UniProtKB/TrEMBL annotation:
Segments forming a coiled coil: none
Transmembrane region(s): none
Domain Glycoside-hydrolase family GH114 TIM-barrel: 52-269
Residues covered by region (Disordered): 23-45
InterPro entries in the record: Aldolase_TIM, GH, GH114_TIM-barrel
Domain of life: Bacteria
Signal sequence range: 1-22
Lineage, uppermost ranks: Bacteria, Bacillati, Actinomycetota, Actinomycetes, Kitasatosporales
Pfam families cross-referenced by the UniProt entry: Glyco_hydro_114
Keywords, ordered alphabetically: Signal
Name this protein carries in UniProt: Endo alpha-1,4 polygalactosaminidase
Length: 274
């Protein structure tokens, strides 16, 4: 039987009315957009002026009232990192990435062909950073350790071998390539990463690193070289060993550095800039 077009139109209107929702109880309130998905890992990005504690020897003292701790990645378990987190601290994982240390548990995995001259510290020798095919996987495992223990960041040490007598013909280009590799490996694991010393390459590397760590820039009249980090909104964690605080604090405070006086053993003692 053929249906009247008027009946078909009426039926369609009834169906459309049934699909329309009734008035909203919260009518008049703005409709909120869906919350954007958050990235699975967000790096900690420390800004200039943060006070810090750097302790690489002795029994760890977690009670120093500062927002940032820098401690040895091998020597401390995940529970120590978690304890510092409960106290409101961010925690940096100290690693040597440019020198071999005979006292580390993975020391036997480094081929002897990669070991150069001593770097001035007992049991340590410079690494041939050109051999990224070997060092890359070894350093990736160390950074895995930092991540798995819950650290927020990493301080890779001995990152200026090209400027020292290493026993290898290292160039500035070799150092840039290696330092950027370490930064990339850290970022892939959700860790922020600091550039340790290596002042001459700051202009090329400030974009690759999230903060800087420096020793004795005031003693050598080099602190101004670190200001690209401060201008980029990135912290510069700085220590002196020989100068009294009255001689360097006014200058480094004006430059925006996070400065303190430490002893060479980097134990718990510290004298911060007020």
């Amino acid at each position: 039987m053929r249906r009247s077009p008027f009946l078909l139109l009426a039926a369609l209107l009834v169906l459309l009315a049934g699909c329309t929702s009734g008035p909203d109880r919260d009518e008049g309130k703005p409709t909120l957009p869906p919350r954007p998905a958050q990235p699975s890992t967000e790096r900690w990005l420390p800004g200039p002026g943060l006070a810090w504690q750097w302790q690489l020897s002795g029994r760890l003292d977690p009670t120093v009232d500062v927002p940032v701790y820098d401690i040895d990645g091998f020597d401390h378990p995940a529970s120590a990192v978690a304890d510092l987190h409960r106290r409101g601290r961010k925690v940096i994982c100290y690693l040597s990435t440019g020198a071999w240390e005979d006292f580390r548990p993975d020391a036997g995995r480094f081929p002897t062909s990669l070991l150069g001259r001593g770097n001035g510290w007992e049991g340590e020798r410079w690494l041939d950073i050109r051999r990224t095919d070997v060092l890359g996987p070894l350093m990736a495992e160390r950074l895995d350790m930092c991540r798995d223990k819950g650290f927020d960041a990493v301080e890779p040490d001995n990152m200026d071998g090209y400027a020292n007598r290493t026993g290898f013909p290292l160039t500035a280009a070799d150092q840039l390539r290696y330092n950027r590799l370490i930064a990339r490996l850290a970022h892939e694991r959700g860790l922020s990463v600091g550039l340790k010393n290596d002042l001459d390459q700051i202009p090329e590397l400030v974009g690759d690193f999230d903060f800087a760590v420096n020793e004795q820039c005031a003693e050598h009249d080099e602190c101004a070289a670190l200001t690209p980090f401060v201008r980029a909104g990135k912290a510069v964690f700085h220590v002196e060993y020989e100068l009294p605080t009255r001689e360097f604090c006014p200058t480094t405070r004006e430059l925006g550095l996070s400065s303190m006086l430490k002893k060479y053993d980097l134990g718990g003692w510290r004298e911060p800039c007020a």
